[in-house]
User: Fold these one by one.
Assistant:
Number 1:
Amino acid sequence: MDGDVTRVGRKGAPGADDTRGLKMAAAILGVLCILFATAAGLKLASGPAPAAPEGPASASGKPAATPVKGAPAASAPANKKRRRGGNCLVASRGAVPSGCDRAETINDGITDFDGHRGYCSYDMNNKSLEGCLITLPKPVELSRIRFLLWDKDDRQFTYIAYVSPDGKEWRAVKDTSDKPTRSWQDIRFDLQPVKAVRIKGLTSTANSYFHVVEVEGYDDGPLVPLRAPPKAGPRPSSADLKPGLWAEYFDEMDGYATVEDRPLLARPEPKIDFGAMPPPQQPEQGLKGWPMSNASAAVFTGYIKIEKADLYTFFLNSDDGSKLYIDGEPVIDNDGVHGMTELWGQLDLSAGLHRVWITYFNMGGAMGLVLQYKPRNDDRKVVPEDVLFHDPSERETRE
Ligand SMILES: [Ca+2]
Ligand SMILES: [Ca+2]
């Protein structure tokens, strides 16, 4: 097999750099897919470039081509996360904020804010200011910081985030100079002693002011593996299957579900069609019955029944991150904290049952998750309920 083996992309017209990025991402994904496919006997698209999917077309009519965020193996913590809790940067642990107006708001544990209160502010034009600072009484082991940038409108910021073991020597753990960003930022780095965290704003698309609502840092607990797709095994017979994917919903999450997280709710889900929805005020208020509120996660496990062997394009649209695996292999990696973002991936599927596995998380605020597909010469549509199933015997082992 050579050439493109799997195509991936997202909405919007690519820039030159993006196209280069896609080739790199596709190459990485392609190599992985070849390895995986060889091992699993999966037949992925190969040979001539497959037909362009209808969805992510750019203005020129060519398929969109930008790199997939969180491409496989792109970041060390991709398959593990630290346990929730243990924010070390709160005032109750002696952490002292400084460097900006209303500095006390950035580690008061409150993420509620509006246009006038609940966030810090400093003028990036004032070169004597070094950014928002939180200093601990003594170093703690940290491997992650996350913080909320003021996000009441669409403005985007660039910044550099630093950590320091002593408050003097600084190490940049994130530099977004080339990639303006907004809302929650989640930064992982090698576990190391940290006495101070500094976030230096560089630019804002609105004005010269940098605004941070809350900063958190974590040091607790062992690394816990994230849930992973089931190993490809013998296909069950259709007679053993029940309708719908088996959905497990996790509340109060700060990322994808780990092997230690226990679902608050589990039930069959006829299809994955939770369109973009505003932040619900209460569970069950989300669009189309999404059962969780705000920070949550979900895992969907089951099978898709393919009537006719063909090249299929899958589209995964989510707020925030999501990943699609088919027969245990990654097809779409829509990772990251973001608004509704659609990525696609293609592969050849034989007729019969194929394993489907989707993992999803919402860091907070608005949420959404939609899975669509398109056979080569057919219409694009939400993957319908009459082709999605789950195996109750597998369900038992996870309850
Ligand atoms: Ca706050
Ligand atoms: Ca969200």
Number 2:
Amino acid sequence: MDQYIIIGVVGSGAMGAGIAQVAAVAGHQVVLYDNNAAALEKAKANLTQTLQKLQEKGKISNADDVLKRFTFAGEINAFAKCGLVIEAIVEKLEIKKTVFADIEKNVSDTCILASNTSSLSITSIAAACGRPQNVMGLHFFNPAPLMALVEVIPAVQTNPAHVQPAKELMHRWGKTPVVAKDTPGFIVNRVARPYYGEAIRMYEEGIASMEEIDNAMVQSGGFKMGPFTLMDYIGHDVNYVVTETVFQSFFYDPRYKPSFSQKRLLEAGWLGRKTGRGFYNYNEPGTADKPVDNSNNTQIVERIVAMLINEAVDALYLNVATATDLETAMTKGVNYPKGLLQWCDEWGAEKCLAILDGLYDSYHEDRYRASILLRKHAKEGKRFL
Ligand SMILES: NC(=O)c1ccc[n+]([C@@H]2O[C@H](COP(=O)([O-])OP(=O)(O)OC[C@H]3O[C@@H](n4cnc5c(N)ncnc54)[C@H](O)[C@@H]3O)[C@@H](O)[C@H]2O)c1
């Protein structure tokens, strides 16, 4: 995939427009297509404004030159000369399958088709195509121009020869690619689940308040945002739906079980910051900044971090990604203060295992089962890195 190929982007929403911007700034001609004319107009106006701002800040030398690389298209046949088309439309499998099958009919035999899906199977999207060997996942994070991580996901059918060129292209776009197996949530959206799930569990059980948990994870854990603040920021329409999809895709493994607290927020339309109310009420300024008891900080952080470490270790055990890519994904994709395998090495696998086994003994729930790899490392006193 060389620098001179024309890049197609399907969907001009938050992610599509961001990905298109990254490709154009990297020097590519970009065809941005949306089936909603108003959305496309909005993307064009936003991109014009963003590129102007980047020029004022000295990040790009000429906004007009970058804008000239764009074709804003309302017809799918505009992709005819593209070498890579990245899809970022609505997160619905049947719609993505139809769109992939349509795009394939409008591009050359060698064109690579990539999906930016957060939680759907790349393999099932590829199965809708006549050339499934040319389909892969390229999962950017929001906002795409700012977040460095890109998960490169070969489907079962993907020609393995396409992986390295995709990684190289992402490097040229200033991104940090990691390779993930086509499993639910790939790396980040799988390994990060306990950050939300275990926090809600402790809150529902009355072990600590939302404010206490948020405060503990930031002040003692070193995370940039506490779990409740973060879920409100992401929006429950996105965060809850990813949790539910991952849970269903893992054949209802209790480790990923969604919560009623969050489901009710979604049902109420309390989607978080964007609607003024989620776990916190943003119409009452200062509610998220109440003074809190921090005597339980260690217990809170250890329980959530042990669950996160267990996910990372199990993902390593099941070959979802390499140890290096797991560390890169969690530090660059969700800005964790350090990689989870490093965290485990610093604690010692034995300590992490003791926390999980303690929970398992108390609850007798499969949710708290430790990965066999963690158990082995604890027994042998081995490190992960
Ligand atoms: N928002 C995030 O944080 C985030 C992060 C990573 C990945 N993703 C994934 O990226 C994809 C897009 O998410 P988003 O947040 O940008 O959505 P969005 O709703 O902001 O934008 C989707 C765009 O796709 C267009 N669209 C819908 N159906 C279409 C079709 N059939 N043909 C052409 N255009 C169509 C819509 O008009 C809209 O402009 C989803 O698969 C999502 O899971 C989202």
Number 3:
Amino acid sequence: MLQASQPLELPQPIEPLGPKPFELEQLDLERLGLEQLVFEHPGLNLRLQPRWLDHEQADALLQELLSNVAWKQEHIRLFGRVHPLPRLTCWIADPGCAYRYSGLQQVVEPWTPALQALRTEISEFCGCAFNSLLLNLYRHGRDAMGCHADDEPELEASAAIASLSLGSRRTLRFKPKSGSGLAAQSQSFALELNHGDLLVMDPPTQQHWLHGLPRRTRIESPRINLTFRRVRG
Ligand SMILES: O=C(O)CCC(=O)C(=O)O
């Protein structure tokens, strides 16, 4: 696994969302001797650790999770009609960590040994004792997640959210919340998330910014995203 090195404070970390989103590959991190990117902007605090898992580790974890997680099809009620969420999910948490997500009370599964080990490593890496995990399975590019902030009252606002990506490369979009006072001065931007990348969203990001995963209709292969969270005890 990569070790955190000298964080890079990019002078212009935010790229406007234009026809071509910000792509990490444009920066040759290895040639620059960098292992972590830090994005700071008013109300936004992100750390991106490319290839936190190497290719082999990420492949093995992807296969394990595709086969062994109790994936569920959740539904959401919108304007009186029930719709399936465009992804499968699984919620894992310590006992007593109840959490509503997208207006849904989650059925909680226990930690598997592999996910417990991963939680320990990611908690150490982030300096945050995560007690819950939401897994999302995007079966193909038609699966997606709308723009939202992980700012529910059950979540500790002072804790980071750590997001590990596995499988097909997808775009994560960020935009300032409209009532945040940042909308006028901050532009939307996007990050490309690759197999094995770890994105840490530190406070106060969820208070001021929304994020979402748009559809990519040409993608046929799956992506799994794991978001480690800290629910109030
Ligand atoms: O799939 C992703 O990268 C985003 C997941 C997400 O936003 C969430 O679980 O709240």
